[in-house]
Each structure stands twice: as structure tokens, then as C-alpha cells.
Queue: 4 jobs
Job 1
Amino acid sequence: MFKKFDSRISRRDALKLGVLVTAALGMGLPLSLLTKSAVAQDLGTEQLAFLFDQKKCIGCKLCESACRSANQEARDEQVKWRRVLDNGGDEGEGHFLSISCNHCADPACLTVCPVTAYTKRQDGIVVHNAEKCVGCGYCMYACPYHAPQLSKKTKRVTKCHFCYSRQDQGQQPACVEACPKKALTYGKLSELKKAPGGVATLKGLPSPTITNPSWVIIPKE
């Protein structure tokens, strides 16, 4: 359904990765870090997550624009922290998917980052530190959801941080607040999983066994 989420690496991408590895060696970065295991944290019932109800989404993309307005980094024209995809169906019959970083339980981005630019908070939010980032792009290739994106302006990676500063102040993530149909909500993953009909993936998306994404999708029939 959503072919843009084909997680296979093309020959061109593989060649790019080879260039990046060579560059990393030139910088003296330890490639052994690429194969290290993620430091999985037992977050119990605290892991925060998004819930996307495909039945309610009308494809207005207000979540996209709200994300851009609320976050300076997301205003870079080259990147989109939140994206609304569609399957090209007729008006009123299309299937939409609003997606950003899934703040996975086993985040591949964190696993492969050679400069520890990624951290996972106690609430499960995966945060990227642009000051540490060297723009090697390992995380971009590792993430099956293509959440980390390279800014051509800063030459560093950037991605959704779940509006953690807003949440710390008792506010909702900007994308959630902007959704007029309440198709996009958030909360503790343990609670969201109780939503009737909720699943962790859709046809065309990567297997959730790869990174254990922290999201719940209610598919449109």
C-alpha cells in the first residue's frame, strides 16, 4: 500500500553507504560501533507513543504544517519530520498515513550512531543531539522508517523529538494538537495498545520486529 516504505537498500544506497564508511574511517570513527547492540531500556508502561486512526484521517496535512511551525529544525525545506502519505485513492476513498519518528523500543538510529548523538529518555522519546552529529548518515540507512533526514543547510541529521519540551510543560505535541479529527493522538504505549483494532504495521511498512516501533495504527477497512 505504501511503497515509499520499502526498507531494502538499493545498489545506489549501498554505494553511498560505502562512501560513508570510508569517510568514517578517515575521521577515525570506530566502525565497531556500527554492530554494537542497542542499550535496550526497560521502560515498562512509561514508553510514549503515537496512535494514528486511519479511519479518521482526512489528509488535511495540518499535522505536517503544525510540526514545521512549532520546531525550528523542521522548518528546513529539505526535511519533513512528519509526513502524510496517501495511496493515491479517489477523493474520499484514499488511505492516509501520518508518520514521523516512531521512538522505537530498539532504535536502530541509536544503535549505529558512532558519536552517541542519540539518547532515549525515560519516557521512551528518542532525542537527537545536533551538536554531536557529524552527518555520517548511518542512522538514515539504519532506520526502516526513514525518520532521520539530512539537512543540506546544516550538513547534520535532524528528526522528530516528539515535542518533548512542549510535553515537559504539559502541552501536547504540535501535530497532535493540530489534528482536527483527532486521528492523531498520543499516550503511553501500554494504554494505546488496548485500542480496538490497533496494529503495529500496515501492508508496505517494515516488520515491527526490526525496531519495535512505539506506535499504534487503526487501519481503515
Note: The chain has one domain: 48-218.
Job 2
Amino acid sequence: MDNRPQWGTRAGFIMAAVGSAVGLGNIWRFPAVAYENGGGAFFLPYLFAILTAGIPLLVLEFTLGHKYRGSAPLTFARLNKKTEWLGWWQVAISFVISTYYAVIIAWAMSFAYFSFGEKWGKDPGAFLFGDYLKLAEAPGQVGSIVPSVFIPLVLVWVIALGVLFKGVKKGIEAANKIFIPALVILFLVIVVRAVTLDGAAQGLDAFFKPNWSLIAEPKVWVAAYGQIFFSLSIGFAIMVTYSSYLPKKTDLTNNAFITAFANSGFELLAGIGVFAALGFMAQQQGVGVSEVVAGGLGLAFVVFPQIISEFPAFNGLLGSIFFLCLVLAGLTSLISIIETYVAGIQDKFKVSRNKAVAIGGGISAVISILFATQGGLYFLDAADYFINQFGIVVAGFAEVVIVAWVLREMKVLQQHADSMSDMLLGAWWKICLGVITPVVLGYMMIQNFINNLKENYEGYPTSFLLYTGWGVALAAIVVGFVFAAFKWQKGSLDLPSADNKGVSK
């Protein structure tokens, strides 16, 4: 008998999967990546990447989790005992991400409050790094805890762990059913206001105008695959864990298509909102759109506050809505990230859910205090870059190579997905995962190694990167092997008997 918790409805699962995929990167990463890689022309490689890597990988992870009905460690252990370390490696990557991701959500909470009265004044950059973060002078200096970051950080953990204590159906599913519709509605308010501002047309023209001269460049295609890969929450245990809570009967392939296109739809919406606002800002300053384009933390916490200050009316309200959108997008992703190690701890060590949430979430919350110190931004920046480039990409590469080439399980997994789904997987699925995805991820991985061995990321000192970047990425692999060395309780690796409760078609 399978006593694993289940989603209440198929819509609940899709909301949770979309909530995980739609994160901060959708809002601050995609628009700049699209613009820098050909504007409207970028959508061609982007769509190609969705169909040849994003959706095939989602189908793979949904099928793995559903067939083997476990967290990532249990799923890979049931697939083959020798691959359990891969599941723990992915869980360790999630653990690292959760420690600093919570801090960025805390910043967004603070800025939602700061929007009323535009506390950043006339120089948002100086405000962010000086007044708010009280940034240390050099990388590696820890300094003291910054109360204005620490207090909202506590609130972030209270909300995230509060949801997780409630369980899969009453916690994660219920929260996503509120957070995702709220996020879409609030972001639509921002987009509608942005596209009606003076200068919005120039911004949208810059975003959508195709630069076909870039389409033949390999870096554009790699950027498209990178955007899809980082955006869909694949390669670090989330989708495997979430799909393990699906009922026996569910359309796996269809779920993957819905999740992928919902995520891309939100990215497109974010691109429209961001570039309409950038067009307005460019017109206000009398410069070209290219001179105000930014991405990442700079877009969210420096450029957007500037834009908000220049709005003709309702500045505080619109600013708080924008940062509330970041909070909601971040929370739904953070909850999914924490769930990976909560489920892993529960499966392997047979502890109650509450204990797993308290131990896993508690340790992560304590470590996250490091990123709420004066030197926190440096640690965050290095850990984020290295765990993404040398954690997620390498673990994703290992996953497809092990499943497709080492274990040769594609046929078995295809049969399982097809037995559940209306849309049958053809040869394209095996070609995409067996050839295209490993080649692209392998290329990205090698380029990353070469670039980072040639030049230190952001010019940080080597000694600093050894323990905050390279060391963190390497430690995640070591943790994978250490946890895999613990023995499972008797019978844990047996697949649960058929349980026909719940039909989600």
C-alpha cells in the first residue's frame, strides 16, 4: 500500500509545478536574455529549446517521480541502487539554493514596503548597496547582521516552513492556488500600466524587433537552452519530487506541456511589462532603450525603483505591487526547493514530516543568516553563480547521460509515460534526451569550465571563490555520496503496490 501523500487535484499539481518554474528569473532574467540575443529573433531558438529540451526533460522527471514514487534520492535508488547519489546531489543543490534564495525574497519584501515614500531617494543604487545592505568593503568580509534584511528573512522562513508543515495537499497545493492567481493578477496590473506609459512603444519595439543577424551564432542558441533549463526547475530534484505525489492515473506528457508553456507565457508577459517600463524610463531620460536595459538584481532593485519614482501617479502602490509579485514568485519557488530535501529526509530516515521540515528547513534558515550580513551579497553572488553553472547544469547532464546511455532506461520510461498519457511519445523524445540535450548541456558545461578557469567570476579573488563558489559546488557532490552511503530501512526500496485511488486526467 502506498501511503505517500497526494495532490488533491490535477490543477493543484499543475499550479504547484508552474509555481516552482515561475520564479524570480522569469521576471528579471528572461527579458534581458531575449533582448541581448536577437530580440524577436530569439523566440525561434527559445521555442526550439522548449520542444527539444524543456518539455522532454519535464516528461522525463515527471515520469521518474511518478513511476518510482519517491523523492529524488529514493527515485534514483529504485531506478538503480548505484545512482542514489545523483538524487542526493540534486537535493544538496536545492539545499544550497534555498539558503540564499530566501534572502532575495526578503529584499523584495523590504522594497515592497520602501515603495511607499520611495525610500531609495534619487540614487537607488547607493541606497541598495549602502543604506540597505550596508555592503562590506571587500568579498570575504562577513561583518554584522543587517537587521533590515534579517527581520523580513525571518518572515520568509515563517511563511515557507508554515506552508510546508501543513503538508502537500493542505500546505503546498493550497498556497499555490492562492499565490499563483494572485501573482498573475498583480503582474497584469503592472503590465497594463507599463504599456500605457509614454515611451512604452519604443521599449516593446526594442524587445520584439528581430535581429536575424544573430540567429546563426551558437551563443544565442546556448542562451536559449540555458534560459529554458534554468527556468523550468529541472535538474535539481523538484519536478521528480512533485510528480511522486501524483495519483496513479494522470496524464504525464500533457502536464509537462502545460507546465512548460505556462512558464513561457509568464516569461513573455514579464518581457512585455519590463520593456514597456524601460521604454518609459528611456524617454524620461532622453536616451535610447539600449542604455537602460538591465537584468538580474540590478533590474529589480536599482532600475525598477528608478522607474517607479518616475511614474506619473500611484508610485507607491505600483511599486509595492511589483515587489509583491517578486515575493510571490519567489515564495512558490522556495517552497518547492525546500520540499526536495524534506521529502528526501522523510523517505530515507523515516522521520515524520514535521521533523523533516524542522530539521531541513531549520538548518537552511540558520545558514541563510550568513547572507543577511554585511558581506552577504558577495557570498550570495558567488554561491548562486557556481551552484547554477557547476551544480544544476552538471547534475542535469549527469541525469540524462545516466538514464539514456548508462542505464538505457528510455524505453521503459517511455512505456510508462505513454500508458498514462493521451499524447504518445515518439522517437523525438528519445532523440532529444539521448542526443540533443546531452550535447547542449555538455557544451555549456565545458564552456563554463574554460571561461571560469581563464578568468575569475566577477574578478573575485581566487581564495574567496575556492570556498564560496567552487567549494560549494564540489561539496554538493560530496554530500550526495555521503548520504547515499547510509543504508535504507528494510523494504524501503520496494516499489509500493498499486494504489488506484485518485484519477487525474
Note: The longest strand covers residues 249-250.
Job 3
Amino acid sequence: MTPRRLVVVGASLAGLRAVTAARECGFDGRVTLVGAEEHLPYDRPPLSKEFLAAEEEPPPPTHPDAALLRDGLGVELLLGEPATALDPTARTVTVGGAEIPYDALVIATGARPRVLPAHRPPAPPLDGVHPLRTLDDARAVRRALDAGARTVVVGAGFIGSEVASEARRRGLDVTVVEALPAPMSRSLGAETGAVFADLHTTHGTELRCDTTVTGIEGHGRVERVLLSDGSAVEADLVVVGIGAAPATEWLAGSGVAVRDGVLCDPYLATGTPGVWAAGDVARRQLAGHGRTLRLEHWTNAAEQGALAARNAVGPGPAEPCTTVPYFWSQWYGHRIQFVGLPEGEQVEILGDTATPCFIALYRSGDRLAGALAVNRAGAVPGLRRLVRAGASWAQALAHAGRLATSSSTKGTK
């Protein structure tokens, strides 16, 4: 069946790229974009960076393409109402009580932030406790920082650490509570975790590792955070950054296979006729690896959204997803970038971890699985090419050695 009606559920980056890619590949049928938020599609990475750091609250970081959706691309927008059900037999999506028909469907509903056990019902909701996922979250966090909030960040991952960095830039008291022995030590390794810990402490952030939150107290508004070591931290603002879970609840009973994300093949097809998945919600099979992977990265969402739409309604043959994972962060003025996957049995660090200015290579078998670059932005494109090409460990070490020599030579001039 030649599709004439494309529905994309999820109006963030993956959804936006899906509808624009459909038009770019010549699809002239009906296109509907469904979003739970009332806002036009916007960029999430600036929410924990530039949006908090600007002197005055900036306008929403709306994607430039979003303004063209209705008039330029002829996309029907259904914003402010989430999809609540999928009927793959009738080929309909339920939105606000209405049945939206489709021939091809792209699921791009993203992920929802995890909630602290100490802040779940029956615990009473308290003002001043926020995740940082949406534009509305960012506005609330920014208002609290503007008011000089004593800040507790739960989770020393990228978003939490970016909030801590901005709070310290403003001269505010900040405590970061982390369950691991060091920030991101489980995924990136103990040695790099120690580097990230030093970034926090040398900039005046109190870092409490090997510690969890056991309670949040207040009268209508947060007043203090209780910790597993028996201590308490006074707080006006708590930012919770303990990860996210794929937004798949609305697919219950639909028959679409879900296991920590919507399961799909290397072409992003779910196995349910006419249904594809993309972005944070998609758990795709890695071609030739016998395993699946779900990522919550900007580049992953952008590339998968476009690919899913092309495979769903494009004129050519379906193409597999070959995205090389990439993410970046900025803490206390330090640029942190990663390409590939942080896995494997060996980590090789080249450079100066004290400055810090270094590269860390991650080995899986005889291959380069991933690479971390701290204040080495110029090295990232080459490392990304190596990961994409499936470079051997020896090739990766040789490449990194040349980078180190080049950097050292430049430093002596």
C-alpha cells in the first residue's frame, strides 16, 4: 500500500525531523504531527545551558523549521494533547478522544524523567522540586536560580552537572548528591569520574558521592533534603537528574513490542505493519551485533527521525540506521564530548587529566568502541570517523598518539 497519511507522534526533535524529511523526500500526502506539549518543537540541550545562563530569560529555543510546519510544509499540528492509544488493526492513533487515521506512523514520544522515590505518592508534592526536561521545567528552574535558591542537584550526570555549574557561576550554594563513587564512573570509568568530581569541587560545588536521597521535607515547598548518611541539606530548589524512561505507556495493549523502549530493527521498523520508531523512545537492533541499543542523544534523535520517515514514506528502498552516537556537555567552562559507546574492557587515557585536557579511548575486543574528549574539540571529528569506520584498537592508539604529538608541538610554539 502506498502511504497517503503519515502521522508522527512526538513533537520534539525526532518528530520534527520526521515530518520535514517526509516532505524533503517528496511525500505529498497528509502529514500530522502530534505533541503532548503546547509549544512548537524546540531544542532541549540549551535548556540546561544557555537558557539558564542568559542575563534575561530568552525566548524559547524553537527550532527554525518549526515556524514552517503549517504554511511551508503543510503539516497539521495537534499540540497540547498526548496520544493515548494506538490501534494497529484500524490504523488509528487516539488523541484527545479523536481517532487519527494513518497509513504510516512514526513513534517519537521520547522519554520522561525518572522521579525520586522520596518524591512519589503518597509523599506530598512540594514546590521547588523539578526535573529539567521541558521548557516549562527550565523556566521554573531559572526563576528559582534568579531568586538565589540554595540548590540541591540529585544525580551528577550531564544535565544535573550543567545546572550545578550555572548555579555556581551565579555564586549560589550548590550540593550535588550522587549515588555512585564518582560522577558517571559506571559508564565512563573510575579515572574519568575522578576528573569530573574534581571539576565540581574545585569550582565550589559540594559533591556528596556514595549517597542517596531518603526524603524531601517542607511545608508546601521544599525546605531540606534528607540523605542516606543521616545528614540534611537546606534547599530552596531541588533539580532531579536521575535519568529518563521511554514514554511508551500509551502503547499498552497495542501489540507493539516494548522493552525499555519500542523495539525495532536496524531500519527502525517495529514489526507492526506501518509503524516505525525514532529517537529516545526507539530501541533498535544493531546490525551484526545481536543486541539492541536505545540512546537519548540529540544527534541520534535528529538522524533517526529523518531516517524513519524516509523509510516509512520515501520512494527508495529502506536504509539501515548507522548513527554514531555523539553527545556533548559544558561544565564550568570545560567542553566534554563523547563519540561512540562508553563500553569495553579497557580505557586508555592520553593527555593531562589535571588541566584537564585529554582523550580517553574505550576498547571493545580489538575495536575502538568510543572516545571521550575533554577540552579537545578539534579531535572529535577524527575520532568520530574512526568509530564509524570500525577502526582497530591499534589504529585508534596510533591516531590518538598523533593527536597528542600535534597538541604538544603546538603547545611549545
Note: The chain is about 25% helix and 30% strand.
Job 4
Amino acid sequence: MTLVSPSLLASLDFPAILDGLPLGVAVLDREGRVVTVNTALERMTGFSREAARGVPCRHVLRSGICQGKCPASGPVDTEIINRHRRKIPVRISAVPVLDPLGQELFRLDIVEDLSALRELERRLEEPGGIGKLVGKSPAMERIMRLIPAMAQAGAPVMVIGETGTGKDAVAEAIHKLSPRAREPFVRVNCGPMQAEALEAELFGRRQQSGEIAPGAFQRAGTGTAYLSDVGELPEELQVRLVRFLDEEAILPAGGQTPIRSQAKVIASSPSSPESLVRSGRMRQDLAYRLGALRLDLPPLRERPEDIEFLLAHFMEVFAAKFRKKVLGFTPRARRLLLAHDYPGNVRELRNIVEFAVMICPKPSIPPACLPAHLLEQLAAPGEKE
């Protein structure tokens, strides 16, 4: 077994350089045995560098190309099976490192995790939506085109929309389509909480023992911290949030030493940053930082072309959930559902369909199986038959 000189690696501070890379890297000797792996590849494969050292590469990467195409002459898309027997789609590129005489000293196998890309491709192929987001109107199709682009950006994203329009689903979709998809998604509701408790929930708190109880930004790590109802954040905490967005460091309550955090921030509110500033509920500097990338979700009443599509979608979902053979709505029930203005937006429509499918004993759902407030509308003049 030929190993690269440890003194050479140490002089280049090679391990630190490799650990700073977002891609997985395996350093192999000329016989294809692992000299070391970086932190990203440890996380991807589940094998520590100590466990991998000296082991043939094929026992660490465990890819199909190990059976004959290794080393690949160019980037190869394949799958590896990690220590926990999970298949991970990857792209592997082999880079030889040569000495001045052109002799190969060692080889770098660069391993790019394609999970987020494959997930994005799968979701883009889903008819009518991304994840929990569903819609066929031009407004929703534009939102779904923007989400993947915003997922790739490291900047904060603000999601604006009335209750029930899908702000939480958008935040989750941005996280799942981002390079941070394998990291935590931590949600904090900034609304119904005392300022002191909210400070600890967001930034952590130094306990009497001296230990730091981690806040949302520490728990998110390099993942995503999602702050819903951000307009309810007290001003003193808005100042601290601005400082975090500028410096990527937080100071736990009662602590003296700032802690680094690379969490991406997604915030949501029923109101736009401009209206929050006008009403005195948000600082201008925070509005500037959060509002750079924003998604405005239209209420359902402004995209009526989605109502029939959503009715059919959720009927199919709940018919499968309750194992019922429901084929559709009667003409009278359908007319009522299409005429409703849905102040609770998609959430209200979803609840109506869930209720109707759950209680209806017939293949076609009649008005009698709809919630009471819709039946009252049915009794209005012009709806009686």
C-alpha cells in the first residue's frame, strides 16, 4: 500500500482545505485505497475518515462504477449505498494529482450529492404542483417556477400571503429543493409567545450550569430557520435578527460569546414588509433584508381557475385516505363550491372536501354532505331548487 506522505499533507493543510469544500472528496493512493475523506463525504457515506483509512475505495463509496468503470475518465452519474444502506444519487469525478515528472501521486474522487437535484426534477414532473403546493393558474405556475430559483439562493426569503394560502408549504418546498435539504428545517412561530421566551427560542439561552440551550439558529445548523408571523417579532429581537443576517452570528441570552450560524432564514407574514413598516410593526432595515427575495401568494378568490382543479385534487387525496369510491360532486354541489369565495383560502377548501368525502356514503357528493355554512348559502335566494 502506497500512502501519500503525511508531512506533505500537513504542509499544505490539506485536511482543512478538504473539510471546507461542500463536495465530498476521497483521497486515494495509487492502489485505490482511501488515504482520507473530508467531512462532506463522511456525512454522505456514514463512514468516518478513521474507519475509511486504508480501505479499498469500493468498500466506502459502494457504487456501481466500482465494478469496472473505475476510475471514470469523466464525471459519471451513479448511486452510492451509504453505511445505513440508503441509496444516494451522486456524480463522481476522478482527478489525478501528479508530481513534477507526471507520475500519479494520488487521486481525488470528487463526489457531488445529487439528491436535491433529483428531488427537484421529480417534483417538477408532478402534475400541478410542488410538494404540498397545488395549482394550475398562471399565478401559481409562476410561484412554482420561482421556488426552485429561490431555493438555490443563500439570501433570506419572505413569503407573504393570507391565512390558508400555503406559506408554510412554500417554506418547506424552498428548503427541500435547496442544497440544505439534508439539514434541519426548524420552524418558530413568532406570534403567541412572550418576548423573553421567544428570544431563547430563537437565539438560545445560557443556563445556570453554563451550558447553552440552543435556539432555532443553532438547531438549524446549515439548514433553514423558518420564522412564521415575523411581523409579530418584538423590536429588540428584530434588531438581533438584523445583526444575525449581517454577521451570521448570534449571541444567546445571558451569553458573552457570539456563536456562528449559517442557517438560511425564511420568514412569512400575512402582510407585506412595506405595510408592516408603515404600521410600525417592522423596522425598515429588517424589511430591506427580508424583502429582497419575496413570494406573494395570491388568495384563492383571485385565481378562481384553481378552485375546480383543487376540488378534484383533494377529492382524490381524501378518497384514497378514507378508502372510499367517490367519483365527484353533484351538479348542484359543484355549483355551490365554485360560487364560494373561500376566505380561508386553500386550507378552507381542503377542509370542506375532507369533511364531504369523509361523511358522504354515495359516489357523487350532494349538497347535504357539505359543511353547514355552505348549506346556509345554498338556502339563499336563487340557490333553492
Note: The chain is about 40% helix and 20% strand.
